[in-house]
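Students often ask why inverse folding is considered easier than folding. One informal answer: many sequences map to the same fold, so there is more than one right answer. In these notes we will look at a single instance of the problem. The structure comes first.
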């Protein structure tokens, strides 16, 4: 009797342990693919956490530390919120087995440093929120391996230096926002900033820092302002610098540029911008126009087109040809040929400000397609004519001997039938009227040899 209880107890224990993995903690709320344990006073994670959530909310608690394999039992995890806790550090392998994580929110914690091992294995991470911590240093290589990153928020910290050189086209091809605003950077390696991918430059926020006013800094922001970057346009008044490093002499350098009158703004701070890539499909012989709309807004621009078949095109080089250019850079092409297919480049140059921008248009010239109605009609007509000719040949061919039949002349009983023929024109001669008759043996008579006779 006792031996029979052990298997039952073992099965019960196995069921309990197996089922506990999917048990929702009593202080949390579990709905479909989401588990929220927000604002419940957690000092550490509950032991029994379900493995199914894609979204996990641990914000507004008292977590101070995350150990190895903290989330390894949640392989489906995609979004993790841990804002407004007291986290000071992250151990190695804290995000082991959650490589599908796309959003990580560690904002409003007490992190002092961002180390390279913090986010290892999160190659699918798209958004990283670290704002409103106490971060003073971001070590080089921290963002290495995060090839899917699109947005990084590091504002409202105490950062004095940032490794801009570690962000390149091939390492972070999708990074479109890097927020370093409201930190304590007094100087920035502007050469490294100018070498950043263009997408990163457009989304680089570094306002509300303790920047020292100098010409290198002013040149970068001057060009960004001309290009209407949102990071500059939306926070114009927040872009300040300290004259000679004195915080008491802070100026809004985008509003008041008198301090930089002696600065020589570089003409080639960045590479030309390529914008408005488009495709155009036309038919041979058509007349079409290509505009040269770029990011430059000046009214004093000069334009040059590079055509795959016509070479360089300017306003002065199109006189007396089928190609012309309007003052706004629009290219007018008449009588298009198939060899006009290819990529057309338009370069707009602002000589006064030392800026240039390009526009690319991919033109495809097609041969006119044949009308299916006319093709079918032509085929039907050809078949009809052929049929008529065949019928005419069969039924309207003239008689080769020119003879016409006449009805036989009356004859007496017992005489042999003869076939008479005569010419329709002219007098017949004797040779023509000679014909052959065949004698038929009467029934019941003795068989005799048939003898041809003349009629």
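Output (designed amino acids):
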């Amino acid at each position: 009797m006792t031996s029979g209880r052990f298997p039952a107890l073992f099965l019960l224990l196995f069921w309990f342990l197996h089922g506990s993995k999917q048990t929702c903690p009593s202080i949390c709320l579990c709905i479909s693919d989401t588990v929220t344990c927000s604002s419940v006073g957690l000092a550490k994670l509950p032991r029994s956490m379900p493995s199914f959530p894609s979204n996990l909310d641990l914000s507004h608690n008292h977590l101070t530390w995350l150990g190895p394999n903290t989330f390894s039992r949640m392989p489906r995890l995609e979004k993790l919120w841990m804002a407004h806790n007291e986290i000071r550090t992250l151990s190695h392998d804290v995000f082991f087995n959650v490589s599908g994580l796309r959003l990580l929110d560690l904002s409003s914690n007490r992190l002092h440093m961002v180390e390279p091992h913090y986010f290892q294995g999160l190659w699918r991470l798209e958004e990283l929120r670290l704002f409103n911590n106490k971060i003073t240093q971001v070590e080089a290589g921290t963002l290495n391996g995060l090839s899917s990153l699109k947005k990084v928020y590091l504002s409202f910290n105490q950062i004095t230096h940032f490794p801009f050189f570690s962000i390149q086209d091939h390492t972070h091809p999708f990074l479109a926002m890097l927020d370093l605003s409201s930190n304590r950077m007094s100087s920035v390696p502007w050469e490294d900033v100018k070498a950043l991918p263009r997408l990163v430059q457009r989304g680089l926020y570094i306002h509300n820092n303790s920047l020292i006013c100098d010409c290198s800094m002013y040149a970068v922001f001057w060009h960004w302002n001309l290009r209407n970057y949102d990071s500059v346009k939306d926070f114009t008044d927040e872009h300040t610098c300290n004259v000679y490093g004195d915080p008491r002499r802070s100026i809004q350098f985008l509003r008041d540029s008198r301090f930089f009158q002696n600065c020589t703004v570089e003409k080639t701070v960045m590479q030309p911008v390529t914008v408005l890539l488009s495709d155009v499909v036309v038919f041979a012989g058509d007349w079409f126009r290509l505009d040269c709309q770029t990011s430059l807004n000046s009214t004093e621009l000069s334009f040059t087109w590079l055509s795959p078949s016509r070479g360089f095109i300017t306003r002065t080089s199109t006189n007396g040809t089928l190609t012309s250019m309007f003052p706004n850079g629009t290219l007018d092409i008449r009588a298009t040929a198939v060899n006009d297919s290819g990529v057309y480049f338009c370069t707009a140059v602002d000589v006064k400000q030392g800026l240039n921008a390009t526009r690319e248009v991919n033109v495809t010239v097609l041969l006119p397609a044949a009308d299916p109605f006319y093709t079918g009609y032509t085929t039907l007509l050809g078949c009809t004519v052929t049929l008529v000719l065949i019928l005419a040949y069969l039924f309207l061919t003239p008689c080769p001997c020119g003879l016409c039949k006449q009805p036989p002349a009356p004859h007496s009983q017992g005489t042999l039938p003869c076939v008479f023929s005569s010419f329709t024109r002219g007098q017949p001669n004797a040779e023509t009227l000679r014909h052959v008759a065949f004698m038929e043996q009467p029934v019941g008579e003795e068989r005799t040899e048939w003898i041809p006779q003349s009629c």
